[in-house]
Write a structure and sequence with these properties.
Number of domains: 1
Oligomer: single chain
CATH topology: Glutaredoxin
Number of helices: 5
CATH class: Alpha Beta
Number of strands: 9
Largest sheet: 5 strands, mixed
Distance between the termini: 22 Å
Radius of gyration: 15 Å
Strand order of the largest sheet: 5-4-3-8-9
CATH superfamily: Glutaredoxin
Strand content: 15-25%
Structural class: alpha/beta
Helix content: 25-40%
Amino acid sequence: MTVKVGDEAPLFEADSVNMGHVSLEEYRGRRVLLVFGRYFGCPVCQYDFDSLLEMHRGGLSAEVIYVTQSSPESAGAYIESLDVGFPVLPVEKRDGGYSIYYDYGVSRFSITSITALIRRSREARGSGKVHGPYEGSETQSPADFVINEIGKVIWAHLGVLEPEKLSSFLRGS
């Protein structure tokens, strides 16, 4: 990951599938949880998205923006009946990579992330999640960042979503 704690969060603009145009600049003055999934056909991503929805509905102390490699059509279809209260941004490929992922340096799974992915995959299958259409990159790592009110990254995590650690951080920061 090239964006680290203490760095200025790279600005971006994109169209969401559910809440119109999103510009990170417009979130200045508010804390933001920026979550990078892979794509909605991925059972682990589905499982982590469910966890994110629970966290959001439980009252996070941050605005949420979710980024996915799914097409706008797939992303819209997946979230259609879920009452998602935050923007979901499908991103397009640019120069061989996915634009916002590229800007944040979110790349392939690290060796340490693979163990967590395997464990999460078992949990996802156990909860009834099944693989859907393949989109994006199978080796793409998910990631999450917390950006403070002045646009600085105060949390940077490469790998599957860790709701307990993230919630604890948000409560304590």
